[in-house]
TrEMBL record:
Pfam families: RabGAP-TBC. One of its GO terms (molecular function) is small GTPase binding. Gene3D superfamilies: putative rabgap domain of human tbc1 domain family member 14 like domains (1.10.8.270), Ypt/Rab-GAP domain of gyp1p, domain 3 (1.10.472.80). This is Rab-GAP TBC domain-containing protein. Residues 86-268 form the Rab-GAP TBC domain. Signal peptide: none annotated.
Length: 332
């Protein structure tokens, strides 16, 4: 299989069967940069070494190697069903590292790096993992820098940083990069970011048509969907969903694509119908949604803590994990 970067270099390789790497302990649950983890056996120095060698922070369990979790392993399987071969961590990592090397001497890419760094610092503000020098920060920087080389006509666009943050929480730079490029190419995110935003307007129209059928009163009240769908479409909703909950969200998107996303957006509007109907004009509506779209950075205001069903009598937070995922996905 051959991939061509925008600078004309062809990356070509022959694939053998996937590496049969033995998992050190697939049931191990880890929290990086912390002292807590659980396992059925007693702690020993080998496990301590294992924790320090991991490149992700979630506690989903280890995948086929120590560079991504079990969830990310499944995502590669979903993503690569569009290809004639499976994800090969060893070979794909080599190509990714080659691109990082090329990016260092590419002036056009380096012009984008400062903007990338600025946006990374604003993406997740309450996690040491994503602070400058942290593993999450490094993963995001490497993924977005490599992508700026890989697809120069598209390049880096704001919104991509939220997607890469969610990926970085679950896997290392190489795995995150190829998952991200799969989202861009195989799941048609690329059209959202190109000049003219033609892809975005098509997404907004699809959501509007679905809302007209599923939630006609809200649809009529909102009038236009472009202004409230821009940020969730550009960030794939990752600007609103907490890192812990991103596992469920990315799992469903890699499985079902935009049909799932559209249904999730309708679900979100239904959950916030009371607040929507309290708005007096379009400016109030935009302010309401802007407030949600920018809450992702702090744990005290994540979507899971703020979104609430109106008929809920308790003060308990309504989590995206509590969504009836099977019912939601049947709609798609």
């Amino acid at each position: 299989m051959t991939r061509r970067s925008s600078n004309g270099k062809v990356f070509e390789w022959n694939y053998k069967d996937n590496l049969d790497l033995k998992t050190v302990n697939k049931n191990l649950m880890i929290q990086i940069n912390g002292d807590r983890f659980t396992d059925s056996t007693t702690f020993d120095s080998n496990k301590c070494s294992l924790v320090s060698s991991l490149n992700f922070k979630c506690i989903c369990g280890i995948g086929s190697n120590m560079h991504h979790c079990e969830a990310a392993q499944r995502w590669t399987e979903y993503a690569y069903r569009h290809h004639s071969r499976s994800f090969d961590f060893e070979k794909d990592s080599e190509i990714f590292n080659d691109m990082l090397t090329l990016a260092e001497s590419d002036s056009a890419v380096q012009e984008s790096v400062q903007q990338i760094k600025n946006d990374i610092c604003r993406t997740v503000t309450d996690e040491e993992f994503f602070c400058v020098g942290g593993r999450g920060y490094t993963t995001m920087l490497e993924v977005l820098t490599a992508f700026a080389l890989y697809d120069k006509p598209c390049g880096y666009v704001q919104g991509m940083n939220f997607i890469t943050a969610s990926l970085a929480y679950h896997c290392n730079s190489a795995t995150a990069f190829w998952l991200f490029t799969s989202l861009i190419e195989d799941y048609e995110l690329r059209e959202n970011y190109l000049n003219g935003l033609e892809g975005f307007y098509e997404r907004a129209q699809s959501i509007s048509e679905l809302a007209k059928v599923e939630i006609p009163e809200i649809h009529a009240f909102l009038v236009t969907f472009e202004m409230i769908t821009l940020e969730p479409v550009m960030s794939l909703f990752c600007n609103m969903i907490s890192l812990e909950e991103s596992k469920h969200h990315l799992e469903e998107f890699f499985k079902r694509g935009w049909k799932y996303f559209n249904c999730l957006f309708i679900n979100f509007l239904e959950c916030n119908s009371a607040q929507i109907f309290m708005c007096e004009d379009q400016c109030d509506i935009l302010s309401l949604f802007k407030d949600y779209y920018h809450c992702r950075g702090g744990r005290q205001s994540t979507w899971s803590q703020r979104i609430a069903l109106q008929n809920k009598s308790t003060a308990d937070s309504y989590s995206i994990c509590d969504v009836d995922w099977e019912k939601l996905c049947r709609k798609s």
